[in-house]
Amino acid sequence: MSKFLSEEWASDVSAAMAAHEGFKNALGAADLAIQFNVNDAPDGEVAYYLAADGGVSNLALGTLENPDITVAQSYETAAAISKGELNTQTAFMTGKLKVSGNLAKLMMHQAAVQQWAAAVSELDVEY
Please, which pLDDT band fits residue 113 given cuts at 50, 70 and 90? Predict the structure, then answer.
């Protein structure tokens, strides 16, 4: 079991995405970089990112220099999305996710975002 937003969690998420055919197919050869910033986490602010290029994706803690998209959210929102209790579209529409950057690129890869949720749905995560 990995702790949400830890290095181990990021590694587990990357492995789950790499092993999930739906995610890999939806992502294709996309060049995509999404920065996530989570505030109010138990250990303070946490930054992580999803970087994909040529069919290979990686999720890691840290900050990208020039992400395509930046997503800001509270720990409560991030955990609810991770647990499958809240979907990203609802979170965005209700103002729980603040998204900036190339929104057209994000919408172009919406299927990959949805498959990401499916890819990580079986992970054992401690919140």
Answer: confident
d(C-alpha 49, C-alpha 36), whole Å: 6
Evaluate if residue 51 carries a pLDDT over 90: yes
Instruction: Classify 34 as helix, strand or coil.
Output: strand
The predicted-structure confidence for 84-102, as pLDDT tens digits, reads as follows 899 888 999 999 999 999 9
Rounded distance between C-alpha atoms, residue 23 and residue 127, angstroms: 24
Could you give the domains of the chain? 2-115 (3.30.1050.10)
How do 2-3 and 32-39 pair as beta strands?
unpaired
- Bridge partners of 69, per DSSP, are 34, 101
- Based on its alpha-carbon atoms, the radius of gyration of the chain, rounded to whole angstroms, reads 13
